[in-house]
Amino acid sequence: MKLLALAAGVLAAHTALAEPEVLWEYNDFKMPESVLMDQQRGQIYVSNVNGGPVSEDGNGSIGVISADGKQHTVEWVGGLSSPKGLAQRGKYLYAADVKELVVINVETAQVSARYPVPEAGVLNGLAFDKDGSLYVSDWMGNRIYRLQDQELSVWLETDQLESPNGLVVKNGYLYVASWGKNPKADFSTESSGLLKRISLKSKRIENFNGERTWMNLDGLHPMPNGWLASDFMKGELLRLNSKGKITDRVQLGQSSADFWLEEDQNLLLVPYLMGNRVAAYRFEQ
Fold this sequence. Notes:
This protein is mostly beta strands. It has a single domain (6-282), classed as Methylamine Dehydrogenase, Chain H (7 Propeller). The protein is built from no helices and 24 strands.
């Protein structure tokens, strides 16, 4: 069964689908949290938490999978703690790693820089602006950091962020997939997460959906007239309209985290944190 014609409107809103057919998968990663495809080099990067998601234990890593899914290396670059969100600019891969931002040269498979953030809660999502600035969400600290001119500093700090996770920069705004207020030890929250946007000029925060449907948003990807987001706790892929309300959903599996959609190949890559699994699906828009 193909993944989902999310944009087709075939199903009523809030309808659940059966688990889709897998194109390929690997089940030996070490708590993968984020995936990113590097088309230029024909490979997919995977962040391995490998332990407590908030632990600075030094046993995290970055894995790699060939773009065709035929080959993989679980621990390609070591020396990290519990890396999560990934972003790439040129030959450099950036990883949000608890209390530091780690930069990896993908041509040498070596760590080339580290930006420590000792006051951070848990660094998580990453997104580049067109000017080269990198925004970093602090999931437990309710902050957004910005890396600009080789300096990483707090750009915004407020409880209104409600545990910011996935980030996307688009049309003068930073879009934020919020997890929900006050995550507990089991990652459940006191309130539902939702989609937000922040003006890059004024830093004004807007909540997209007034109706609070309980969800814990992780990954985020822009789509025509809306968004794709992953709900980590329910294990669902959500289609949100331009106002942030759920229009369709598909069941993937619990702990589906920071996914990657390669639109020109109709390929959806999903890491399953607690399942030690990375899976590829065919995605029909």
